[in-house]
Write a structure and sequence with these properties.
Helix content of chain B: 55-70%
CATH class of the largest domain in chain A: Mainly Alpha
Strand content of chain A: under 5%
Distance between the termini of chain B: 60 Å
Number of domains of chain A: 2
Radius of gyration of chain A: 24 Å
Shape of chain A: globular
Oligomer: heterodimer
Largest interface: A-B, 69 and 72 residues
CATH class of the largest domain in chain B: Mainly Alpha
Structural class of chain A: mainly alpha
Largest sheet of chain B: 6 strands, mixed
CATH topology of the largest domain in chain B: MetI-like fold
CATH superfamily of the largest domain in chain A: MetI-like
Number of strands of chain B: 12
CATH architecture of the largest domain in chain B: Orthogonal Bundle
Number of helices of chain B: 25
Number of domains of chain B: 3
Largest sheet of chain A: none
Strand order of the largest sheet of chain B: 8-9-10-3-11-12
């Protein structure tokens, strides 16, 4: 298990390094046009030059990258080019909103999808058909269109939820609940049937396995076999789809935060992208990839814990 | 060769197309996409206003009049802009899919066909790309190169290429070693020709499905980015229109409706097409399965035919009336007279059927009757498909849920387990018997242990539950059992996971599990078939010892007369769902009466060394 974990961690670090290098190269390659963008069209060549030197953009790209990595490792991601905030301050005040949104939504998706998918696999009948139809509908409606409709109907027209979020540092629990309820519903509606469908297939497949019949022949009860053996065997398939949905949501949150006016890192990413505040964009990329690596690592470790075969190989 | 492979392929394709069009959802999806394509192509004709034509005096006009769907905040005609925008939307979906295919398909082909380091590197890259949230990547690309639909869609195509890569790689890997590809290689075709002729045809269908789904995703993402205001403001897009509508939601709620409908319907239509295509392909008759079945039929026909020359001519007419055949039409005279409850297990006139595709019922077991007493070993012999395993699972109450018990009864120690009215086994009756009174030894040892739990847990848990003993007591007994079935290091095996032990050991573990709660009857379904010959003899030895030491009865299902000779007291021969002959093992082996028994005996013993010689002392 220890070698297995170390291998997974090493693989995650390699991924992180590759993505950061690629993103840095992409974002910072064109030093002079960045400086021009900051000082504005009216500035003289000399001003552009001076800004370029001030920001270190005249240095060769690999050197700048190593410099960035060095500071990043000490927690210093630089400063916003257009404001006074440091990148890490800008991100850490907004990260809780995004994480709360995704975390709560995925928690509900996981619970609901597991319950519905298992019921569909075991009971079949109408609930099974409903899951199948629901999965097609869930796939067919783009999440942000659904969110726009929900926001329009329930926040704007009916006024059941605030149309503009009131959460921020120091906001009370009721503000969080009021702001997050509708976006969480939008995510759950959009995601739950797809994962329920996957979990259903996995449970059906695992219930057909020989060892399940043998366990029945040993006199164990149906519910014990389902909960302890079948669901455990089906868990890796379920975790895979849920982790893919989680990663998808890190991107999807960008649009959802705009629709529901939530002050998360997605909003920050959009405004920085439009203004060309590249240190912030780079920070968002770094944070996102770190979260992706952590989630994938957690899934790998849970799979290893659930399935002894994975541990050995 | 080309002619023969092409002919069935083209009818197959017609079939898929027909199935696809018959699926109402697929047809609706296709109709919507065709309408959008038509709208995009004919936009210059259909659109009453230009892209940027603004009727400044008339912003937020209601639908009707000059403006079919009203106007936006700058007085631009919504209907016209929807049409113009569909051009860009469709073009970006096409670009995205083309890029994804251009990267994913060749790299998947190369990785799947040649393997090696390219496979390693490309698979790692594919995993890495798939683990990135697309929108974040697209945001950073936008930061670097500015707003451009085309660059965005090329990058998104790269992000989606792993989908094609994985699909192609898996498909190629699965056919690479098929015989016909080998044959093509041997006949001197170059790799490039093999790939283009044989392998592309395999991946074509899944790629079409994937493309339909990806077109939908591309439109959704593109609209999403435009909605965020990251697109080029001079180009009309559905996403930007949605954003405009959302911003002016209080002024003109309908402004939001049209782009939302356009995006929703188009994306949904592509998904529906993809799903309908998948269904159409999956509903095709399972070629592989039917081929296998035909082969089995042919093979069984062959063995019967090869023997008919020697056996049937002289014997069949003569012995037929005297054989003890037990079927529903002709029950054994002796069976009916036995008082019920004298036997440990009594199966009478059992009939099992499965729903057939035509609505009827396919009977797999017909009028089977037999009984077993305590301490007795009855072997049911027959070839695959003779219904012997179905009979055994009926006794255990572990038939698949679609099975129907059409007739007959199963009585285990005075307990009737068949509900004749419901045509099912009564789980309420048989479930409490499982483990305690009847237990089961399966055929494949490895697949019958849960890989996620230790051997020890799987042995001890039923004892804790059924015997009501403590966990530590169950552990002590489990280790004792493991020792008893001849496992050298029982403590280590107890702590092992199934993948850490050999097949022979796993079968011993399963036998230990079967006897753990001291049942009266063990149902063993081909318990030695999956094992090496030397291990087979040891396992039979073990079963015999369990019978002698515990006095347990064994119902042994097998196709192997060597096994029968080795262990059984009585033997019942099954053919095509019927019991054709039954009697003491010595009699049947020496003097088989039914021609089918002779066929089986002939095909199994001729030219082979039996596990145990049929001498007086062993058949005793």
């Amino acid at each position: 298990m220890i070698t297995y974990s170390l291998k997974r961690i090493a693989s995650g670090i390699v991924l992180l390094a590759v993505i950061c290098a690629a993103a840095y190269a992409l974002l910072f390659v064109n030093g002079s046009s960045i400086a021009r963008n900051i000082v504005g069209d009216q500035a003289t060549e000399a001003q552009v030059e001076a800004k370029s030197i001030e920001l270190g953009l005249d240095q060769p790209l690999p050197l700048r990258f190593l410099d960035w990595v060095g500071s990043a490792l000490t927690g210093d991601l630089g400063r916003s080019w257009f404001g006074t905030l440091t990148v890490s301050d800008a991100l850490t005040t907004r990260l809780p909103v995004t994480l709360a949104l995704i975390g709560v939504a995925m928690l509900f998706v996981t619970l609901l999808a597991t319950t519905i998918g298992t019921l569909a696999a075991v009971k079949r009948g109408w609930i099974d058909r409903a899951v199948q139809v629901g999965a097609v509908i869930g796939d067919a409606i783009p999440g942000f269109v659904l969110a726009v409709v929900l926001a329009t109907v329930f926040a704007v027209q009916l006024g059941w939820f605030p149309a503009v979020s009131s959460i921020g540092p120091g906001a009370g629990a009721d503000a969080w609940i009021a702001s997050l309820t509708l976006p969480v519903i939008a995510i759950v509606l959009n995601y739950v049937t797809a994962s329920a469908q996957q979990i259903r297939s996995a449970v059906i497949q695992q219930r057909d396995r020989d060892f399940v019949r043998t366990l029945r022949s040993r006199g164990l009860g149906e519910s014990e076999i389902l909960l302890k053996h079948v669901l455990r065997a089906a868990a890796p398939a379920g975790l895979t789809v849920l982790s893919l949905q989680f990663v998808g949501l890190l991107g999807g949150a960008v649009i959802l935060e705009r629709i529901f006016a939530l002050p998360g890192i997605g909003q920050l990413a959009v405004t920085s992208t439009v203004s060309g505040d590249i240190p912030i964009v780079m920070g968002v990329v770094l944070y996102t990839v770190v979260i992706v690596v952590i989630v994938n690592l957690a899934v790998d470790l849970i799979n290893g814990w659930l399935n002894p075969k994975v541990r050995v190989s | 060769m080309t002619a023969t492979t092409n002919a069935p392929a083209s009818t197959r394709r017609d079939n898929v197309l027909l199935r696809f069009l018959r699926n109402p959802l697929g047809a609706i999806g296709l109709a919507i996409v065709l309408l959008v394509v038509l709208g995009a192509v004919l936009a210059p004709v259909l659109a009453p206003f230009g892209v940027t034509t603004a009727d400044i005096a008339n912003p937020f006009a209601d639908p009707g009049g000059d403006h079919l769907l009203g106007t936006d905040s700058s007085g631009r005609d919504t209907w016209s802009r929807l049409l113009w925008a569909s051009q860009l939307t469709l073009a970006s979906a096409v670009l995205c899919a083309v890029v994804a295919i251009a990267i994913g398909l060749p790299s998947g082909l190369i990785a799947g066909y040649f393997g090696g380091p390219f496979d390693g590197v490309s698979s790692w890259s594919a995993n890495a790309l798939m683990s990135l949230p697309a929108i974040i990547v697209l945001l950073s690309v936008r930061s670097a190169v500015g707003p451009s639909v085309w660059v965005t869609m090329i990058v998104f195509g790269i992000l989606l290429s792993p989908g094609y890569y994985r699909l192609t790689r898996t498909a190629v890997q699965s056919v690479r070693n098929e015989l016909y590809v080998d044959a093509a290689r041997v006949s001197g075709l170059s790799d490039a020709r093999i790939i283009s002729r044989h392998i592309i045809s395999v991946v074509r269908a899944p790629i079409i499905i994937q493309t339909a789904l990806i077109a939908g995703v591309a439109i959704a993402i593109q609209s999403g980015l435009e909605f965020l205001g990251l697109g080029n403001p001079s180009e009309p897009t559905w996403g930007a229109m949605l954003s405009e509508g959302f911003r002016n939601i209080y002024i003109s709620p309908t402004l939001l409706l049209w782009p939302a409908l356009a995006i929703g319907l188009t994306v949904g239509a592509f998904v529906l097409i993809g799903n309908a295509l998948r269904d159409a392909l999956e509903d095709l008759p399972k070629v592989r399965a039917s081929r296998k079945a035909t082969a089995a039929v042919a093979a069984s026909g062959m063995t019967a035919g090869s023997l008919s020359g020697t056996a049937s001519i002289a014997v069949e007419p003569e012995i037929a009336p005297t054989v003890s055949i037990s079927t529903s039409s002709d029950p054994l005279p002796g069976v009916g007279e036995l008082p019920a409850g004298d036997h440990l297990l009594e199966v009478r006139d059992l009939e099992i059927g499965y729903p057939a595709p035509d609505g009827g019922l396919t009977k797999v077991v017909q009028g089977v009757s037999f009984s077993i007493d305590r301490g007795e070993v009855l072997s049911i012999v027959g070839e695959s498909g003779s219904g012997k395993s179905q009979t055994a699972f009926a006794v255990l109450g572990l038939l698949p849920s679609s099975a129907r018990i059409v007739g007959g009864s199963i009585v285990i120690d005075d307990i009737q387990t068949v509900d004749t009215a419901a045509e099912r086994i009564l789980q309420k009756k048989v479930a409490p018997l499982r483990g305690r009174r009847i237990s089961y030894i399966p055929q494949e040892p490895m697949s019958n242990l849960d890989p996620n739990y230790t051997i020890g847990h799987q042995l001890a848990r039923p004892m804790v539950k059924l015997l009501g003993i403590s966990r530590s007591e169950a552990k002590r007994r489990a280790i004792e059992l493991l020792e008893r079935v001849g496992i050298a290091d029982p403590q280590r095996t107890f702590d092992s996971y199934p993948n850490e032990i050999s097949g022979g050991m796993a079968q011993r573990v399963l036998i230990a599990g079967a006897v753990s709660c001291e049942p009266d009857l063990i149902i063993a379904d081909e318990p030695t078939t999956a094992l090496d010959v030397t291990v087979q003899a040891e396992v039979l030895d073990l079963l015999r010892r369990m019978r002698d030491e515990l006095g347990v009865a064994i119902l042994l299902v097998t196709h192997n007369f060597g096994v029968v000779a080795d262990i059984a007291d009585r033997v019942a021969v099954m053919q095509r769902g019927r019991l054709v002959e039954e009697g003491p093992v010595r009699e049947i082996l020496r003097d088989p009466r039914h021609p089918y028994t002779r066929t089986l005996l002939g095909s199994m013993l001729t030219g082979r060394e039996p596990l145990t010689k049929l001498t007086e002392e062993t058949t005793r």
